[in-house]
Amino acid sequence: MNEQLPDEGQEQQGNLENPVYDDGQAMPQSIEVAVGNAMPPAQVQNLPMLNAAVPTGQTIDATEAAHARSMLAEGMHFVGNAILRGPFSVAGQVDGNLSQASGVQVSVVVTETGRVKGDITAHKISVMGHTDGMLDSGQGEVALHDTASVHGLVRYGRIQVNGADLNATLERVAPPK
User: Fold this and answer.
1) 59 φ, ψ to 5°?
2) Nearest partner of 50 among 17, 85, 24, judged by Cα
3) pLDDT computed for residue 176 by the predictor
4) How high is the pLDDT of residue 175?
5) Cα 76 to the center of its chain, rounded Å
């Protein structure tokens, strides 16, 4: 059964068997994998690459940078490590480490539905959900709200605890003299 889809505003070139992007590059073909078998290794040459500008010089305070804001929505599950260049909000689940990029100060918010199993390194950390790992704000701020459940190590310059379930070692980072 070979149905043609309507063209309503689509700028796809080629045909259904060999589709191509507008710039002429071939679209990746789908891969069928039998149930119970592992996915084949990714072909690096076919993966899109994002090249973010790396800031140089002074540390940039990106705790409120709207252009680099990211969010992991409720119901999403991320496995791996992320390097953040702007504010990040976790409403889903992260299994891995969240770290701010060098030369940037970012904020991380773990909402009531958020769960992070791994380390968080950011200038400002606010937790309303569940964390299991190190929270490291260096000389920055950590806020633990009444719905928070925090397990692990908390490194901070300033801390605010509002009735959180706190089963962690607290370590204050003194400001430089």
Assistant:
1) -70, 130
2) 85
3) 80
4) 83
5) 11
Residues in the chain, overall count: 177
- According to DSSP, residue 27 is labeled P
Q: 3-state DSSP call for residue 129?
A: coil
> Is the pTM value of this prediction over 0.70?
no
Q: DSSP secondary structure string, 142-159?
A: EEE-TT-EEEEEEEESEE
Are the CB atoms for 105 and 59 separated by under 8 Å? Answer: yes
Rg of the chain (C-alpha set): 21
Q: Which helix (H) or strand (E) holds 114?
A: none
Contact assessment for residue 149 and residue 165, using Cβ atoms and an 8 Å cutoff: yes
Helix (H, G, I), strand (E, B) or coil at 68: helix
Residues 5-24 have pLDDT tens digits of 444 444 444 455 555 656 66
Tell the burial category of 44 from Cβ atoms under 10 Å away from its Cβ (0-12, 13-18, 19+).
exposed
Domain extent listing, the chain: 60-172
What is the per-residue pLDDT across 32-63, written as a single tens digit (0 to 9) for each? 656 666 655 655 455 555 555 555 555 666 66
Asked whether the CA dihedral 34, 38, 44, 50 is positive or negative, the reply is positive
Residues contacting 107, CB < 8 A, separation 6+: 63, 64, 87, 88, 122, 123, 124, 125, 126
Angle at 150 between CA 145 and CA 151, to 5 degrees: 170
Spell out, as residue ranges, where the chain has pLDDT lower than 70: 1-67
